[in-house]
Design goal:
Low-confidence stretches: 412-454, 465-472
CATH class of the largest domain: Alpha Beta
Number of strands: 19
Bound molecules: iron/sulfur cluster, zinc ion
Mean pLDDT: 88
CATH architecture of the largest domain: 3-Layer(aba) Sandwich
Strand order of the largest sheet: 4-1-7-6
Length: 472
């Protein structure tokens, strides 16, 4: 990419999806071993932002120990005459994408959950200061989002400062999410879509409604609306709702039409509030996975931070490969944490009454969302270790599904759910999560998009002919 003369490493979209493995990393920030980390964008007045400035609070790369894991806060302050607070979440979500454009810097996840690595190779090439990361981001953001007139970046590596600002950041994320809580899907004229993740999940389209936050958790309906308004040619766009075809499952004719168009025909119908039938697609950035447990006819929910095996014996990363890649995976659903606070949370499947297990790490985050009458009825990995213990726990604690469970013998198969599941999915070529990988995808040409997921293709000869009657 031009405009990066003098940089020690290359900057290009070609690096998106890059991985820095442990043995190749010079240093890492955040990730599963570091509890406090964050990235935050704040909109300020033009006078408050010193354009192009990069500050480091704490140690820079040269002072940190090679091979170490460190806390990190990335604070980006932006200003522009056309931008307001509604855009903070949208600009913040791009940190992931643009950081990954920088050769040898891997960035995963978002908000409070970031995980970044700097490769030995890039360090040797001269990427010896966080300053380069900041300068790269400033140039990329200003080139891609021209409404950002001024931008300054602060990296915080001092553990005490990260800790202090982490609390503040969590408060701000919560305030953003809370804004959409009062609004109902029926009250707005338009939903919004996002296709930012099509770079690695080519058939994935996020539909963001007031009562369904994006599955990465980063974009509420307000955020997506602000982005679509300021940058109509960008990855966010309005989705006319059309006719309400199914109020319980959340099926709208306009959503179906838009998703079909944006997924280039791959996805034809979407239920916004069900994990069965035509569930929302999942890319790879979901904060949590809901997974169907046929033995008790309920759902477990596991979050990205959970280590070990969920009650069904599978880890987050194993289930992520069943869930992601832009496909509709019945019985597996990638969701944002805020969706669990929605009044429409999988309402077609029974909502919270259908949840039978959650990871303890997630439980801490959503204690407030669990209906009071269910608080002692949904176990975590601390209370139950396998399906047998789960069955017993649910029966003893009189979970809403308990009667059904007691009626059936353990070996007996429970009544089928409303639509056939669980459908074993063709393992998709996403991430050995949490790393999204670029799937081979041939960009749209003349309305055709070919997606090759996990395919091995041998071609002896390929002849492409122009079909008759096709106009240029
Ligand atoms: Fe956009 Fe959805 Fe990807 Fe989030 S998960 S960046 S909302 S496409
Ligand atoms: Zn994604």
């Amino acid at each position: 990419m031009s405009g990066f003369e003098g940089f020690p490493v290359e900057i290009s979209p070609a690096f998106e999806g890059q991985r820095v493995r442990k043995e190749d990393m010079y240093i890492e920030f955040g990730g599963p071993n570091i509890p406090k980390k964050f990235e935050l964008v704040r909109v300020k007045s033009l006078e408050e932002v010193e354009d192009g400035s990069v500050r480091i609070i704490g140690s820079d790369l040269l002072e940190l120990k090679e091979g170490s894991s460190n806390p990190l806060g990335i604070l980006i302050e932006v200003a522009g005459s056309r931008i307001d607070r509604d855009l903070e979440g949208v600009i913040e979500r791009r940190i992931h994408m643009y950081t990954n454009y920088i050769e040898g810097i891997m960035h995963l996840n978002q908000r409070y959950d970031i995980w970044c690595r700097i490769s030995k190779k890039s360090f040797k090439k001269g990427l010896t200061s966080l300053k380069w990361w900041g300068l790269g981001l400033i140039r990329l953001f200003k080139a891609e989002m021209p409404y950002i007139e001024k931008m300054q970046v602060t990296f915080i590596t001092d553990p005490v400062e990260v800790e202090k600002m982490f609390e503040e950041a969590m408060k701000i994320y919560n305030e953003r999410d809370a804004r959409a809580r009062g609004l109902r899907d029926e009250e707005v004229e338009l939903f919004y879509g996002c296709v930012l993740c099509q770079s690695f999940a080519p058939t994935h389209v996020c539909v963001i409604s007031p009562e369904r936050v994006s599955l990465c958790g980063a974009l509420t309906w307000f955020d997506a609306r602000a982005a679509a308004n300021i940058d109509p040619k960008g990855p966010n766009f309005p989705v006319p709702k059309g006719e309400l075809l199914d109020p319980v499952r959340g099926e709208w004719s306009g959503v179906n039409e838009t998703v079909q168009k944006r997924s280039l025909g791959a996805i034809k119908r979407v239920y916004l509030h069900s994990a069965f039938g035509y569930p929302h697609t999942s890319c790879g950035c979901f904060e949590c996975i809901m997974f169907y447990i046929p033995e008790v006819d309920g759902f477990g929910i596991v979050d990205r931070g959970f280590k070990g095996e969920a009650v069904n014996g599978l880890s987050f990363s194993t289930m992520a490969s069943q869930t992601g890649g832009g496909m509709q995976s019945e019985g597996f659903l990638g969701v944002g944490i805020e969706y669990m606070r929605s009044r429409k949370f999988i309402q077609a499947d029974g909502g919270w009454n259908r949840i039978v297990w959650i990871s303890s790490t997630l439980r801490k985050r959503i204690e407030d969302a669990i209906p009071r009458e269910l608080k002692d009825k949904i176990p975590t990995e601390i209370e139950v270790k396998n399906i047998e213990e789960l069955r017993k726990y649910l029966a003893e604690h009189k979970h809403p599904l308990a009667e059904k469970i007691i009626e059936k013998k353990p070996e007996a198969k429970l009544e089928a759910p409303p639509t056939p599941i669980p459908t074993p999915q063709i393992p998709v070529a996403i991430p050995q999560i949490p790393t999204p990988q670029i799937l081979p995808s041939i960009p749209a040409v003349g309305g055709i998009k070919i997606v090759l997921q996990g395919a091995k293709i041998k071609i002896g000869k390929l002849i492409i002919k122009k079909a008759e009657g096709v106009k240029q």
